[in-house]
Amino acid sequence: MKLLILNGPNLNLLGKREPEIYGNLTFEDYFSTLENKFPEISFTYFQSNVEGELINKLHEVGFSYDGIILNAGAYTHTSIGLGDAIKGITTPVIEVHISNTFSREEFRHQSYISPNAKGIIIGFGLKSYELAVDYFL
Description:
Blueprint: E1 2-7, H1 19-22, H2 27-37, E2 42-47, H3 51-61, E3 67-71, H4 80-88, E4 93-97, E5 119-122, H5 127-136
Parallel strand pairs: 1-2, 1-3, 3-4, 4-5
Helix pairs in contact: 3-4
């Protein structure tokens, strides 16, 4: 099974950025944990702060991978382009968020990803990614 974990803007700062919300672990460290826990899965990880690069990656793998786990960060709430890219591919996408976006600012309650995602996992910290992997298994 081939899964892509795709992270959007500012998620490269995990472990440093607002640890009270996002924790102290870098995503690279957490990614190693996922790889060890699920050795039967071929994981690919990609992070970008650039919206077009995220769209390009969705187009690149969106017809050949078994699943995509997407945390689009702030683009979740602003990017019609990402929503359209998900709608245009055949690989199922699970939208994940580390924090409970509904307990935060009002603008974070809107998602342009959700209408085109297979499902949404919100608010379980980094474990949100593991829950998405469990879905694909």
